[in-house]
Amino acid sequence: MNNYKRLFLCALPIALHLPANASQSETYIVLLDDVSSQKTMTRSTQVISVKEKVNQVLQRLANMPESVDTRSSRTHAPILADSIYQNLNSFSVKLSTDQAEMLKEMAEVKGVYPDVIFSADGAHSQNSQRVASWGLDRSDQRELPLDGEYEVGPYTGKGVSIYVIDSGIDFSHPDFGGRAQSGWDFVDNDSDASDCHGHGTHVAGTAAGRQYGIAPGADIYSVRVLNCENKGWGSQILKSFDWVIEHAKQQGQPAVINYSISRSTRWAPLDQAVDRLITEYNLPFVHAAANNNTDACTKTPHSEYSITVGASTNDDYRWYSSNWGECVTLFAPGANIISARNHGGYQSMSGTSMATPHVAGQVARLLEIEPKASPSELKRLLIENSTANALYNVGDGSPNRLLYIKSEDSTEVNQSPIAVATSNQYELTGAGTISLTGDASSDPDGDQLTYQWQQLAPSSPLAILASPSASKTNVGFDEHAADITYRFLLTVNDGVTSDSTEVRVVQKAKPITPNGVQWESIKTYASPCERVSWKGSEWENQWWTVGNEPGAGGIWGVWRKVGNSNNRCG
């Protein structure tokens, strides 16, 4: 989008919410039921795609009669989805009210919700001179008074992606040093996710800016979902989630999502999407608790797996507008936070939007230390390493925990174990026993490991694992007529994380020793299952025969190889 046209459209930024009386369009978000949709739509074991599910649901809907009032005007035109969120098992579609109600009754549908608009609260910001950020200063010390310093330490978030889902980013700002990249603009549907408001730029600066960022070495991706007035449709936000999942897969490096947006009431499509981002795609999701001075559990996003951030002040009080309650994970500096300003310079802003990137930046630092750390482990580390009982007036049910970024021995990031599996032999002929061992596996932290062996393939026949829960196990194989490649998986666990590796063993079929009775073309074989030798193989007849050469009739001929599955002689 042309930044010049956006320049004077900027509104005062803050943590965002959606008013409860926001207008609704004819666009609906449809959540598909994971279990029911598969049972109803397919009787095979093949898993169909979300796109196929959507097409089947909408085709059924198009063929259903509407109410008496609308039936006469019905044209039976196909109903097409606006967007399909492949990774979120949901889609958006334009529907009449009657169609939406009918869709709710389908077994394949978990819920149907009107699209909603996300918008900004009124808030304050001010231009500032380039002074030290108290938010950084407070994050690296346990107690007041502040010492006026921030120690970045050896970990800067290098090699970690921070996805800032917001109003965009000013990519030319020197604070980002070329590390801020455009992901996608879901407002204008183009590749220029630059900022025309300022909220996203400020957030990105706190997360990973060179001057005022918690993780000044992290890569930053701008995912724009809010327009120049800081408003955006929920359907666009769901699109952005789907995009982030795919982009993170392609990047192949650890990542964290910063989401400094909220809504004044709950909205199930987004809550479910956040759950999926975290539990199915292993993406840590850090979001603002919002600025309503009320219970954060009543707002969206809402997920037991996410990291929900409240805002604190420089004198260790909960910021007056910050939401509170048991759904808050921890607090972080959020009042009068200085960070990057859109179109250059720096400015101060307040809100849980400003607290959130402090935490997202710390998650990036933790991921640099241990790229395989799970969202649940990262959340645990943030909680365990936070400063307890430092804040005043945190609100009913709130955890009295303040972000602390320095690592201590008791809360170091657990490093994943390394699984190594070997076999005393990788090929055997006929029946026999081999030995698998995981003794070369290790744990960088010196933690004690547990072991688990399992056969990955084939599903049948099964080898006999003598000690599947030990570091070593003998494996027994029965004799089979054909060659088989077995795949065994070793999983080692240190009590927090695990690692797996695979070992393959090939079992060769034992050669059949000819019994010396050669096939004769003039001989009559009257009884089934008479064994003969011919051209280096053993054969058995399935019925009376004379003159039929073994092998000439194909796999279903009268003569069949000994041991083959098509041989009825056993």
3D structure, described in words:
- With 570 residues, the protein is of the alpha+beta class.
- It has four domains: 23-115, 2-Layer Sandwich (Alpha-Beta Plaits); 154-411, Peptidase S8/S53 domain (Rossmann fold); 422-508, Immunoglobulin-like, CATH 2.60.40.10; 512-570, Ribbon (Seminal Fluid Protein  PDC-109 (Domain B)), CATH 2.10.10.20.
- It is 20% helix and 26% strand.
- The protein contains eleven helices and 32 strands.
- The strands form nine sheets. A seven-stranded parallel beta sheet has the order 9-10-8-12-13-14-15, with helices on both faces. A four-stranded antiparallel beta sheet has the order 3-4-2-5, sandwiched between helices.
- Helix 8 (234-251) packs parallel to helix 9.
- The longest helix has 18 residues, at 234-251.
- The termini are far apart.
Content-based structural category: alpha+beta
List segments where confidence is low: pLDDT < 50 over at least 5 consecutive residues.
2-25, 36-46, 68-74
CATH superfamily of the largest domain: Peptidase S8/S53 domain
Overall shape: elongated
Order of strands side by side in the largest beta sheet? Answer: 9-10-8-12-13-14-15
- State the major sheet: 7 strands, parallel
The count of strands amounts to 32
Give the terminus-to-terminus CA distance.
73 Å
The third-level CATH topology of the largest domain is: Rossmann fold
The helix tally amounts to: 11
Name of the CATH first level of the largest domain: Alpha Beta
As a whole number of angstroms, the C-alpha radius of gyration is 32 Å
- Fraction of helical residues: 10-25%
Average pLDDT reading: 87
